[in-house]
Structures
1.
Amino acid sequence: MVSKTSEDNSFFTEFLEDYFAECEEHLAAIRQNLLALESFLNQPTVEPEVLQALFRSFHTLKGLSGMVGIKEAEALAHQMESYLRLLREEHPPLSASGFDALMEGTKTLEQVINCQHQNAPLPNIEPVVGQLKALLPPEIPPSQKGIITPIHLELPSAAQDHLKGAKEKGQQVWHFVFSPNSQRAQAGINVNVIRSRLEQLGQVIHAAPRLNSDHQIVFDFVVTTTAAESVFAPWSQDGVTWNPYETDRESLNPLETAVTTVKDSAETEPAKAATPVPEVEDTSPAPLLSTVDSPPALPLEPMTQPAPLISQPSTVVRVELPKLDALMRMVGDLVISRARLDDYIHQLTNSLPSAQLRPLQELNLTLERQMRDLREGVMRVRLVPIGEIFARMQFVVRDLVREIDKEVVLKISGQETEIDKFVVERMMDPLLHLVRNAVSHGIEGREQRVAAQKDPVGQIHLRARTSGEMVVIEIEDDGQGVDGKKVMGQAKARQLVSTGGGEDHYDGMTLLDILCTPGFSTKEQVDLTSGRGVGMAIVKNTVRELGGLLDLTTEVGQGTCFRIQLPLTLAIADALITNVGSETFAIPQSSVREVIEVPPSQIIHFENNEIISYRGQVLPLVHLSQLFHIAKSLDPIHPDTRLKIVVAGSSLNTVGLVVERIIGLREIVVQALTDPLVRVLGVAGATELGDGRVVLILDVSALVRMAAARKSISQGNRE
Amino acid sequence: MKRILVVDDSATMRKMVIASLRDLPGFTFSEAANGLEAIEQMQNSPFDLMVLDLNMPDMHGLDVLRFVLSHPDYQATPIVILTTKGDPESKNEALSAGASCYLTKPFQPKSLAEQIQELVNLKLGYNVN
């Protein structure tokens, strides 16, 4: 045994970043599994797979923390592991105090790791360690723990039950055999690849290696699936054979009785049983390799699916985000260089004979396509599923609900939606705030809900989906809604809006603007959960900085829905290049709805607004020339000059941007304007075009707000 | 050159093990994140020594060990168990199943390197000095 001194801890400090990254993965898995565990509270049995997954995560965390010398994390993980072992082996029902201890322990463990990461003083772990210790029986002398437990007697039946259930559901059970070799490995066909293929097919309920009669290693997999055989027929080229798996107990071959189950020691997972002994292997495995038309395959000792949440295939490479940022910047530079080439070729159009020009143009087009693929590839690398932060929200709601007297269920959908890693990190706080808001302001108290004939349990939906180049996140509650009158009243009292107008004129946009004003809060009393009134300002600013849009729809008594639209990625975007006078502007394509041409006669002048009728609705116009005080080159009064209008914004709020020329779609590299001194309302950033010109990128959401504000002012004036 | 296969489901742990052993002359390293992958390597890129974790998804380390040692070409392969489990039962079980050496995490890099070197001298008749 290796002695445990701290003499050499410095050796492993170079792995600290890896350690923190891996901790994050395990903690995310733990959070998900704890939520799954909650449904087994006070139930007679607890799903063993969930316990197993949790156990393994804490086990790995314990080992890693010990290696990097973080004793507190090691001790905590050890205690959690001990309690989980008790749950797994002695099957006591999961008590509320036990679950609380696991939650507290996880939270403290996360704090310890975070504090260590930030070199902050570590929290005191003693209370929670004591809490966990109290759950364990006074002492378990390790030597008395059963070494040989006949777990294999009960587990196969569980797996058999699983098989039966699958058959009842009309699923087929297949026995796959994969024969690996080095040619296949070089071609990228290895056991992990085959396994993940099978996982896509259905559920892998057994996976084990075997030596066949030629002393070759093969892998057996038992899979339940609804997929037709034609789906995996091509895999025979990759060394995969299959035949239907026979589940009848009666047809058991002597092999099954000869298959030994691994003796499970205290920590051996029961689910990982079934290792064939070599004596049997020499004589009997041949039928397992039989082809489809041979007699039914021998049954294998199936095992339950190992927790898929935390199994990490070794094909994953961990990369620091700054490296990916650098890569993205390089792609950005390439995009600009190609745009330059594009312009140059354009200039040559008149001076070069077409026979010479054509290959250049074709090459340029190929280059463009390849660049687009490269850009997309780099972007994909940065995408992570949003589910991880959604799972955190479950924790938040759970904690909040305990502090206040409300019942709330958080429903999550679309957690597999992928979004840029940077965006996910930045959205953490805003989402946290919106969810907190929904719990503390949105959902009413129990009596109030009953009085309003609503389900006493409030619901909050957290949804994500991809829509074109954007990711849409919605936080919807079925609570009391935002009381527009009250908000307007308070806004007027605080002189956030002009007091002259009528009481009743507000829409989602106006309300949102007021709610997002720093310091604005409708809550009379500031409590722990929310009410200081700075949160919404943070939400709005973050969404804007990320180039996204924030919408609010609310109905008093029915509920509130915040919708956030975010670009999939930040650095490079497609944009519509337009021209006004001598100035050129880029409008992000993700916010362009369409481009229309309208004769000037269709414009309706209305107070200080210009509007047109657009698809049955009113579209406010913003003249970029007026907004940025640019001298027009065209004469708009000429009756033949049709106005070119770029319809931009989200589905709820649109604005018509009047431009003079549409130059075309270009890939642009977005450079944010973060210096407060050069910030201009309506400008989101700048980009460099192929000819080296610097062009401003319009901030569509700001322009939409501007148009909406004007509309409400004129509505106010009307009265 | 002798090849050491490091099997552990934690990527960080694999890195740490390899970093601890990288100064031993005459070795190359390969990695596997689970038991199935480790066993595939037996066939595709044979190894001379295995450093094996116990608690892993899919296949428990002991099952991997039993399988490797049941293969005619690998019967004499030195297998070093490197695990967080320190109880004597696990150790006995692993050693009686045929493990050459049972080490626990956290480990000291120097100590791990020394133990492996000793084992190599003894088992493979291969002097790394």
2.
Amino acid sequence: MKVTRRDFIRGGVAAFTVSFGAPAFLSDLARAQGASRRNLVVLYLSGGNDALSTLVPYTDGFYYSLRPTIAVPAGNVLQVGADSGGRALGLHPRLTGLKQIFDAGHLALIQRTGYPNSSRSHFLGTDIWSTGNPGNSAGAGWLGRYLDTLPSPVDPLAGWATTREVPRTLIGNKVSVPAIPSVSGYAFLSPNSGAEATYSRQAMERIASHLPADKPHLSFVNGTSQAALATLDRVATVATYEPSVSYGNDGLSQALRAVAGAMVRGIGTKVFWVQIGGFDTHATQNTNAANAGYSNLMGAVNNALTSFYNDVRNQGLLGDTLVIQFSEFGRRIAENGSNGTDHGAAGLMMAMGGGVNGGLYGTAPSLNPVQGNPTLENSGTDVTHETDFRSVYARVIDNWLGANSVSILNGDFRKSGLSFI
Amino acid sequence: MATPTPLVEHLLRRAGFGATPAERDQFAHYTYPLAVAALTGFDPAETDIDSKINTVGYVGVTTRGRFSPNTVINDARQRWLFRMVHSPAPLQERMALIWHHHFATAYSKIAGTYGSSIATRMMAAKPSEDAANAKGQIELFRERALGSFRELLIEVAKDPAMLVWLDGRLNTRTRPQENFGRELMELFTFGVEHYTEEDVYAAARVFSGWNLRRTFPGTPQAYYEFVYNPNQHDTGAKDFSFAIYSSGSKRIEARSSSAGMQDGIDLINALSIHPETARRMARRLWTWFVSEVDQPDQAFVENIANVYLKNDTNMKPVIRAVLLSPQFTDPSRRLQRYAWPVEFVVRSMKEVGYLGFSVDSALTPLLNMGQQLLEPPDVNGWDVGAGWFSTAGMLSRMNFASALATNQRFELRAAARAANATPEALVDFVLGRLSMPRPADAVYSALTDYVRAGGAWTGSEAQLLNKAGGLFHLIVGSGDYQLI
């Protein structure tokens, strides 16, 4: 049975009512809590990214023998040098912008990230990556728990999910993060105009401020309405943002455009969530196609991240920006019969930003399915993890967010040498 | 207007989609057991309401050229919403929605594979209106709404939309595809903690050869239908970690390729009557009907799981047992369940009014509320419960309430004239029309103060026009109305 939000909501609604019980002075709060302009943007590649197609071990003969139709030809990869084990690696050919950012020293590629007994379930896997707890993935997300550590009451715009639903990663026990997929659609309408419309909004704000302690579900809904009504006007300032570069019209590009706008307008948001789907490439993966499948996914990620990088750089905010990317698992080493790949284990994480120490972190697997190959698992069919993903989180929490990773992650996952930020 | 008992109102909200004033009149005369019988006693062969689409007296649809619900996805969505508003068997549509959530299949992947027209047919075609008699997945769910779950699983395994969605069409002897076999066990039956990775590999082999074949190629009725392809079936024995047969055997023995389709039937049979499937079904029914925030009541789970197994997975006695259970009828459960976006928009149309309104106006709001029909986010369906209530989702609910109230304002003024004496009378009228109990004093006074805002209340036509519509907006958009 899937672990869902309901378990923690039960314990959490009382806390929500507390945090929304004092909505006054929100702009002061935002100013105080946003004093540091540092931002964290989490990019989720939904479906299980085929890490071996993102960062290609193009000198490993098994990569080609196990992937006769979907391997990226060695001559096409964008070479990024060799890791500490001497394995040469190259980015997918569509990642041209990321290659430039890598060359500028602002992109870190963290190989073989994962955890023991990696789940092959999308849902359990996503919950584990969201909570940072493979043993019990119910409850609040790792960034929600970070937001819970901010001085109370927390500004409702401290986090911003650009998706229609708030991802578990951003769900806290005390903090409710808004989901704002479209800045222009984030408005309050009324059947009447003029003064009557004002009366409607005032009445709705009064209704939403009713947070009875003995009716937690009603309080939760009203608290959400209250957060929406309290953030409308600040979000509206983002709608007029004029970026310094052009962004694509795809969802990820538009989401990152809004993130850049929120950063430039300084509305106080500290943590953003963006995501792109389509990575569950069981069939017809089309890694090498000119205009299809995985190739287009890489193109979309590249274009959106490159536009965003250039925009925040032009706005003088690159040093305040950190993007980290993850996916719920990597994929099987061998291609399946449908010219695709099935669910696997360890994956690739990326970190991008002005403060990032770019380069290759960790080592590539040897794809030789011989018994006893320590870089593989599941009878040599999947890549096994080398760096616990929580070590990456720990670095971000300690060195970027300025919080305590040991308490937020409920354990010491700090790893020396993982100095990407 | 006659009013049903609070328990029957509860039933109508949870097992139907709320009720129109006429339906409330009808159910006002029913005892609770009679109301349950009325909702569950439908014959799927006699519930067709589609002939009323585009006729006077019903909610509208918006046509762009010709209304083509079998081949144009947004028209398919409109037809389904129309049925939810007007079906004489609302539980049938609710169960179809539940199966759609349980076997969550998204149109977009199919459209990306076969184009929009065939994809819409695979999702929603009505056989009697399709040149190839194609039966869309939703029609399968409607037809088998309260039928045998075991048989439904078999039909789903052969369903063209599912064969595309979870790649079964590509599953062959030499190239086993794990996607369907995994989700069959993880999501459709007993759940993630009851199988191993080896079971996934074996299940993939079981369904090898369950593919699609083209029919009528090159003609307007060109389509794809299920085929068992014996040449593509892996005939070897398959071993599982759980019993497949009543003997306790965990092995599906090797079979000839011509008989190999029985492998899949045997696996589905075993999964459908596995005690953990029965319990998971009971827990899911708890979530869908009783509460999605409280842990399932253990007595409820055992009771419903038993009914499920004793009735050979037939859902009609199971649903009846849910609706008659002490946990469902407990007064403390009323108005405590977070309404799904589809439940919210359909209920509000039934209660606020729909004449001159088009279900098309609900499509974009539903997307923004997080529930686009025929496009669940992934195979796990929607994240029901508190997860619906993001700030943007809640704004979208408020704004849909505004759009509906704006559209209905003249009707609402006419209906409210008799209640124009005082602001309190007007608020009470609107609450009654929405089958809402009186809210907390703080909310009630916000509503009456709203009626008074802008000048002394005289009950004039101009005031009534502004404030009746305004009150419907405020109450339908309030937190109280989001709980059913």
